[in-house]
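Box S2. Input/output pair 1.
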Amino acid sequence: SQFSSPPLAGDITQKGYEKKRSKLIGAFLPKAPGKGKYHSSNQNTNRVCCTVGNSVFSLSPQGMDPSVPHERRTPVTPGSSSRYHRRRSSGSRDERYRSDVHTEAVQAALAKQKERGKMAVPMPSKRRSLVVQSSMDAYTPPDTSSGSEEEGSMQGEGTPTSSQGSINMENWISRAIHGSTTSSTTSSSSTQSGGSGAASRLADVMGQTHLENHSTPPDVTSYTTDSIQVERPQGSTTASKATPKYGNAELMETGDGVPVGGRVSAKIQQLVNTLKRPKRPPLREFFVDDFEELLEVQQPDPNQPKAEGAQMLAMRGEQLGVVTNWPPSLEAALQRWGTISPKAPCLTTMDTNGKPLYILTYGKLWVRSMKVAYNILHKLGSKQEPMVRPGDRVALVFPNNDPAAFMVAFYGCLLAELVPVPIEVPLTRKDAGSQQIGFLLGSCGVTVALTSDACHKGLPKSTTGEIPQFKGWPKLLWFVTESKHLSKPPRDWFPHIKDANNDTAYIEYKTCKDGSVLGVTVMRIALLTHCQALTQSCGYTEAETIVNVLDFKKDVGLWHGILTSKGLKPEVICPCASSPEALTVAIRRPTDDSNQPPGRGVLSMQGLSHGVIRVDSEEKLSVLTLQDVGTAMPGALMCVVKPDGVPQLCKTDEIGELCVCSVATGTSYYGLSGMTKNTFEVFPMNSVGAPISEYPFTRTGLLGFVGPGGLCFIAGKMDGLMVVGGRRHNADDIVATALAVEPMKFVYRGRIAVFSITVLHDERIVVVAEQRPDSTEEDSFQWMSRVLQAIDGIHQVGVYCLALVPSNTLPKTPLGGIHLSETKQLFLEGSLHPCNVLMCPHTCVTNLPKPRQKQPEIGPASVMVGNLVSGKRIAQASGRDLGQMEDNDQARKFLFLSEVLQWRAQTTPDHVLYTLLNSRGTIASSLSCVQLHKRAEKIATMLAERGHLQDGDHVALVYPPGIDLIAAFYGCLYAGCVPITVRPPHPQNIATTLPTVKMIVEVSRSACMMTTAVICKLLRSKEASAAVDVRTWPPVLDTDDLPKKKPPLLYKPSNPDTLAYLDFSVSTTGMLAGVKMSHTATSAFCRSIKLQCELYPSREVAICLDPYCGLGFVIWCLCSVYSGHQSILIPPSELEVNPALWLLAVSQYKVRDTFCSYSVMELCTKGLGLQTESLKSRGLDLSRVRTCVVVAEERPRIALTQSFSKLFKDLGLHPRAVSTSFGCRVNLAICLQGTSGPDPTTVYVDMRALRHDRVRLVERGSPHSLPLMESGKILPGVRIIIANPETKGPLGDSHLGEIWVCSGHNASGYFTVYGDEALQSDHFNSRLSFGDTQTIWARTGYLGFLRRTELTDASGERHDALYVVGALDEAMELRGMRYHPIDIETSVIRTHKNLKIIVQEE
């Protein structure tokens, strides 16, 4: 009834959708075969492992053929329903590496590399995605609408009929569910996280498919199985008995087992209809470059080795023997030996010299364990509220040199029916991995920690003597287990000793590959059975001695040294394989027959990398010699399954993960039922998809195979597995190869870490080692180079990074090994601080992104109606029209700036135009209108008399920022000369700055130079002679010595289009470009700025800029003369002495408008960051500032402007006051925020889309988002359009393209020696390929886009915002994608705090 009427589109919330989806799909989630719990009987627990419970183990005699009748035997699997797979602890890295790859082989490989003369670098080839694509039918829903490509389209022409669309969709849904039942039902190792494959694929159907709204939802219950074609994904098989065929609705069942009728299909149909189909942008706007489809990867070699053997058989260990006098539990065994043989030695602790330190007898162990059990249960808390109860977890914290105390505490917990959790001793509060151990203790609910007296005294303590709470740890009560601190139990108190049952005996911690810590629970029956299996395998008898040099708190050291307490024969070496989940997996049996050699295999490393076994000869370089680890444990069943995907049995010549079915394994990961299922409840399948056993197996985390005679061979661990380019490599093998290169000479053995990181969707190998302090940098790099060659020669894989760090700097495990996950985290964070690094991405990153195929843009064939093209508004905008603006501008009646200055000198002679401040903030000099006019006249006289210059000659003005530069400029105009402003050479850096001066003077063809006496002396100094040839300087005029008389007649140009001045600038790419500015353009420029900023004679403007090119020169030298306002000039170099000079001047003169550069803003941000309070106390007030404009020719630095605004907000600076401008070579100022108009807007774009020259707006905080700030308001008289830089066609709104500009103050062209006419025409006289083909545009060379906002400007029109992305000349195009240097610099700067200073100073 709830779906009787379809809801409207979009009326269902995400939460509601998830709730409904889970409710509806829950009925379709299949159950795993054999999921029922084992019925283990606690009352009838016999003393022999093979009769522990009443359940029956069923298995085919061959272990795989389902047609053979099942054999019934005693159970070997405990009653557990929750198990899971994780990998071996990275703490095992402390083992001393025994190089399986012989040192001789490594040396031979290096010699071979040396003969070749260079490293073998994998040649690039045609590559394809690593992701295995299954049949498209299994993953792609049928398109039921031809309008699927249209944005937001729900209907389209050519749509199939209602019944056809519904049939296709339901057919596909059933195929998706049915084809994925394998991974969701019989595969407990499914790589899909959270939910079954069927549920996730059905969700994909619902999220990606839209259907027609039908009046009556179709019912698919009438369709039979034969009418629905089911295509299984390749490699996915399933058991026919265990899996229902969901193609037929009659076979569907709900969670209660009740068959489902047709209404379920109706519900699904209605739910599909309620989902709003996500919009799919048109192809031209939609690019995603982080998916695997855009990455090229090496195609698999058709000649690579493949598994050819028959499917393996499950190997059964020998039957667990029946011994009538075996104790029914471990506690009972302790009671027996403690009472029968109280004086028999149980454990002897040895010192480093092999002398006995302490002997613990069975009697002492029994008595002390009882005392510990009694005190824990009765002396903690009160009688009414004890701190611990039977079944609670307690931590065991004992040092490695005190196994006796640990043994007493361990058995005390067993007697008290508590669950011990042995952990390492925390040495400091910041131990590597200590926080993860704390998380485990917290999840286990541990509140009490047992420890020894010596360990308790050695724990870190606070000033009050209390043990601090370690980071991430729960609050613990530390309980010392020494007998002297404990009360003697009453005579009538005895622990309750029960037969071994399914209760948890202990929890062993396990560190995963990612650094997380899990707790593996081991039941009491598993504990007892494991001890019995070890005793039988090793032939332990009474009175034998075992020598244990392993960690007695976990793994093999715990099982042999603490639990079995028997011994190995001293003349026998019996390697074994073990894991925290499966306990002992296999062990080589002791034998008295010395003539029986152990199993040995010489395997090809190349074959192992492809997961197959190929026997090779020892003469080869790339071989791995393996010895067997014995056979399966008694009472256990072992098989090898594929490490990824469905747990299918491997072939006999295939490497896979070992799985064990036995009572003597772990039960679960504590508190993690979902993860438990994928490890402890694995149902291996044969080739036809049938499970080989009704009982679950446990994944061991070990990679290997079963050889002849049932011998197990271990080739590696899942934790150390690295899949690079589809090939498997083991970290231990890489370590062994590295250590075989001149071992122990440059790095420490055992202090090396190998791990993989993900780069471009594939794993890359990283090697980190601790360098010996006596190694030189040259020796270390030679060793690193040889290591790379050895790894490439033996393993045929490239190393992404090899880093050497100082000794004792890598994070350690409690046992002294390298903590892998912490080391990897430090590497990814950039916090390793290596002393030597060798990066080789070119040898291993072979799946670079595909070259981008550019989509066709709007072309001449497009339909154009008004300002719309291809459905989009053309991206064009303009400032206010200069001709229609009425104002009281008297200067506009003059055509030349020289006439404006003469007019002001006559009408307002004493009005101050310029005021120059020194570093102390006082006035160094000033110029009124008449003073500037008279000084310019004298300079014009000097140019005529001393320089002998004629009209049109070029004059280089080499002045520091100040008054002299302005006077010299107008002196040139009075004389009819063309001025070129040049930055003077730096006195402390002549060698690099003077050549630039010389180049500008030569390229501009200057007839003479004007400068001050100080700079004139500097140009003729010895330092200058060493840098350039001073003999080729043109005549140099010293303007400090001006003539007294004025010129007889001032020059007046005959044509306003003649050249007024040249503007030279060196771009960031090192190109020197000079542009020609005519008198017309100069006057129009000044008028446009005057109107935008509302500049009048009564105004004061503070300027802190370099006045040599672009907008900075115009504001410094020209605008005051044209507009009549007073300019307060602050040379940026003075801020190096007094960083607060600019802001103090703005506050002192109550300036409303100020201009600065990014370097000035950054200097204030860094230099005054901690002085805001002192500046406030000095009366600094920025509340009157209306506009603070940053003059630049680049993308706005939004981070810097925001930091500046935030820092000086407390001093009254309004956030909206700070804005930017934008100009370039062809037009020195296109945008300037000005005084009126809306605030600058900020948008966030997808940085990945920008690489494809596309604009995709995203929300703030989205992944890969890049903030872009508007570059100011378009100046009056300026028109801009966004055009395709290649086709020259106009682009639509919010499309990225080149910014073209049409304005009265455009530059006339480039001034070059060679006169490149083609470049001149292309940059300054371009026309659109279609549309408005008459307008002449200038190409800025910058990429950007226009976006019409919801804001309105002063004229009431909607505001068009211009966003600048970057220069085309600076951008780097790699494989068809465009990268901007500022983005790469930002990424580099963020890696380390010190890099910011280095990069920006460069």
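Box S3. Input/output pair 2.
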Amino acid sequence: MRIPKPATVEEAREIALGALVTVFWPGDYNKWFRAEVVSVDNDVEEEGQDGQMHVNPDKFYCLLRYLPMHGWDVDDVDTEWDEVFNSDDSVVLELGPGGRRAFPDFIPPQAAEVEARLPAFLSPQKARDAAIGERANAAEAAAGVAAALAAAAPRNGTSKRADGNSQKRAAAVKLEPPDLSSRSARPQQGAMPPTSQQQQRAEGRNPRRGSKRRQQGSQQAGPSQPPAFTAGDESGGNDDDDDGDDDYSEPHAKRPRGTQKQGRPRKTARAKPDYSRVPDPEGAPAAGVVKRLELVNFMCHAHLAMDFGPNINLLAGINGSGKSAVLQALQCGLGARAAETGRYKVMKAFVRKGEAQAVVKVTLWNTGPDAHKRSLLGPELTVVRKINATSGGTTEVLDCQGRPALRGAQAVAELIDELSIDATNPAIVLTQDMARSFAGERSEKDKYHVFMEATQFERTLQNLQQANTHVSEMEAQLHENEESLDALEKDTETKQQLLEQLREVGAWHAHLEQLLKCLAWAPVDTLETAIAKLREASNETYPATLQAHEAQVASYQKQHAGIEKQQDEQQRRLQEVGASAQGRQEELSRLQEQVKAKKRAALQAQRNVRRQKEALEAAQEEQAALQEASREVDADFMRSTQEQAAGHRQRVAQCRGDCERAGLAVSNARQYRAEREAAAALERAAVLEAERQLADANRRVHELEKDLRRLQASQAAPLAKFGGQGAVELDAAVKAAVQQGRFRHPPLLIGSQLALSDDRWALAVEAAIGRQLSQWVVDNMSDATTIKASKQTTRAGMQGLCSRLQQPPQGFSVVVMSFSHPLHPIPQHRQPPQEVMTCLRALRFPRGQNAQVVQNVLIDHANIERTVLTHTQTEAKAHARDHAFWQQYRIVGAYAKDGSKAYRRNTTVTTLPPDARMSRPRLVRDLSQQVEECAAELADAREAVRGLQADVRRKQEGATAAMRELQGAVQAYKASTQQKQTLDTQYQQVISQQPLELAAGDGGEAAQRLAQLGNQVFDAQVQLEMDEDALKVEQQELEALQQRLAQARAEPQQAAAEVKAVQEAILELAAEKEAVGGQLEGAQQAAAHARRQLALVQAKLAEAESHYDGTLRNAALVCSREEAEAMRAQLVADWQREGKSEEAISGLLQQDSMLRQQKQVETKIQRRERSAQVSFDDLEAQVAQQTNNLKKRRLKQQEARLIYDECVEGWSVRRRKFKELRSNVATNLSKSFQRYLGYHKHRGAIDVDYKETKLVFKVGIGGTEPTTDMRALSGGERSLASLAFILALGHVGINPPFHALDEFDVFMDAVNRRLAMAFLLEFAHRNPERQIILLTPGDVSAVDEVKAQVSKAVKSSLPADFVRIQRMKPPRGHRQQQQQQQQQQQES
């Protein structure tokens, strides 16, 4: 089944991707190789009428990955190549998924068919062995091995296949595979082209090369090359019949694996090979002989390769078959320019139409003593010239292994010059036009110019003329120099006479010199004084001041730290006092209730005592009246009952004492119970306080554990910092929605788009914009509806992304900001100075398409451009207090590094402490430090919890003990109360047993009444005493409770006083801290000022010292200090001799005075020198300089004269020798011409007239008298004479290693063609070191006959390969015409 050709690129990709194919590689391999289609190049033609991009089926490019095979190192070969896919050289073995869907009826080829079309891989070594076995001739076998080695050598270039015609890429040498049926060949899976894709990517190269688009550019393109293998690389190099030896391998060198593409060096530089010990092949021709020529896309040849023999190579073909193109390719390969070939004016014209690049490869022998760089290139070399269709190209020289050794046109020029193979020389390469003109009516002057060009006499003559011009110019320059020297000598004599006249001012100069030397050291003395003062200030004054200020700073810092510590202690004390005050308030409430109850009980006891007193008084009054009335009667009765009453009273008194003691015990028990209740209440309050502290500590542990989990989650997923796991889930949902196209622009999480320039500002930035970090930014309201849930979307049946999350993001909110809005401009006058850090300057924003969105949101919603960041809270407050600064830049807030804030509202400056919840900033680069700090704090908090738990247990144990004591007190109180009640009952019983009742019946009613009253009085007295005792107890208990209540009432006041005192202390400490902070700031400013002053003094000192060194050097240049002191002493002595006083001398020694004296002396000297129009020093220097210059120029003039004489003599000798050489060359040329014509019994001579620039042929055919009229000869005879002339030129000129002649037999008939062929064969036999390449459109069937004739003439048999004939294929139109003629003949 054939797959139809795809029409569009989309169809091509759908069909081709994933397909398994096999591709045929022609040329040196002639093999099929398996590959997989991994991509399709978008190489398309122009748009069709339907608007689709249509693929050219003949230019269908696929990126193929060749399947690996055994024995190949994947790292050293390129597995991916761009290929042209067509049915002529490609077979589809299996379709990919897309192809299967498009063509479900596709039937893969049968295994037998695949095996038939995929022969086993044949190694180059085995191919060489097979080729050697099949060749009978040893020379032909050696040539085949060399060709196979050349084919197996690494090649450069890309794998772009030009078209589907495999014949265009056939190699010149094809080795047929031998019969492998008797060998156990290992199975092969395919082949891999050079250099792995992974290695290319590691080296920064694109593995996909050779696409049509790139081939049309300026890249280096080359011919289609199959995977090139080196000898010994296949099958792992373990075949028994493969010795792995390479004819041109380096001694003891490891052969390379795979190939390397052109222009892409390996990772490690390869050492230059050394072929100096590689011997020349046996029978190899001389250096410079052409071995092989290969053309790719050159003129009419898509791909042409041909080998050349060392003697005569005959290239035959009809006109239009491309013979002359071969000669032009040889010229281009050997460095000729386009115009020098006589075909085109520009090199790009040689590129075949429709191709991007042409390649010419010329392989030359490099053997013998004339070899070019033998150790570097080996016994053969290849010149590769690549010509681009646009412009430019490259040239390189390959060694015998096919590896690049030399690059550039200069290297090729050196090679051509050393091997004498200048392809532009007609004596070496005779083009078709030149051959026709020689054989035709070419003038004698034209022949002369050809002769001069071939012998390079024209260039020599130009050099001699140029040398003569230089000699003439040297002579004129010498004459001009002589005149200049004479004038300089006269001027020097004049100046010497004037110098003698100025020597009178020498004394003035001496005095001036004394002044100058003294003045030179005056600045040094001044600087030394200043430096001494500056050093004193730098080493003593300012360091002491700075040390004092720094001591003050340290002291204030210590005070500041102590105050902060006291503040912390007072805060802790304030909390303790508050807790204690709460417990005391509860105790006060309880005591107030007890006092109220006790007051009610005391009041009731007072009422009872008052009623009992009233009843007692009434009974006593009635008793007194009865006693007065019946005193006498009662006397007897009283005497009789006195003893019983006394006993009764005694019992009553005893019971009353027991009751009183029991009441006291009850009162004591009640007081003890109250004390135990207060103690238990205090213990319970302590337990509650400890439990509260434990709860706070547990909450702290819980918060730290939560922070640690958040930080650890943020390390794994950075988005978790800005909303927890919900933010991570929402981000994944947003990405999925973006892929579904639900958003116009992808939403942005603000925190994930930000970074800090410096982590030190993390807390300040967190405090400033912490709320915005968890916000999402969307482009429009539709995107906002998509990302969040709302009532409208719920009613509409839609759900936002947030409503689907398992855990909602923390602090989630959405901000709508147009992504197309440009970055908000901030006027320069609204930006704080650069030294003031702002939130905008501390943040780093992303780069990209929507980089401005987050910055615009923060400018609009957080005012980051107007939020100031400071190092300390003091600096923040200072900015807030600066009203002008705050209003000018419209500052919204100032944040310190610790997270505290200062802001200004009108005239009020407010300071806020750091928020404890923001202790973990989220924008830091590395969270590991926060994780470590949080883990450490968590460990400390857990340790504190354990300590508080132990404290709670201790206090709970104390509370339990207090409760036990309270229970014991309650039980003791109950026992004492029961005992008192029992004693009260006994007391009432004793009272009720009154002895008067026994006698009541015996004394009458008065006695009974008196007895009854006595009992009542007694009972009333007893009850009164009991009530009074009870009242006394209640009053005592009330008094005790009131005392405790007074104490309890005093305690809240004390607590309030303590709270007030603590608060006042905190305020005082705050004021003191602020005062100390101000003092600290002042001390720091003073210290900074001292540092600046010290730095300024040090800078001045350094400047003075640097100036001192320069001044000292300048002074030392004038004179030494000792010399200056001596000059100073000499001036003093001179002034003393003049009679000047010490005071005057001291004034004269001042710098200003000496400057005036200097000016006066200089004025006197200038006046004297003005008359001479030059100063003495200048004139003396000019005379010395001119004298020295005159001597030097005289010497140079003498040397130049000698050089001129040598040049004149050399030019004369060269001119004489050139004339002799021209004469000898003309004579030898005529003799060589005569000798070459004499091979066929002809006579001839050549007359070269150098004066008339003419070259005259004299030719006599068959022994006739030579004639100069070439028109008298036939066309064949003229061609034969021209051929003899060209060969003679090569003999007397540069003696090239080869001659290449196009249409050498032009105008010759069959007889003369045979004669010319015999002439060339005899010439080649007599000159075996010369290679001859002949191009002819004529018939070459008589070559064997001529060869036998020449063998007979020279009396020696010519070798079988002495003449190598290669026939060019006729052009396509000619072949079709021949086929039509043959069909017509068959039909007829």
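Caption for Box S3: The chain has a mean pLDDT of 76. The longest strand covers residues 31-40.
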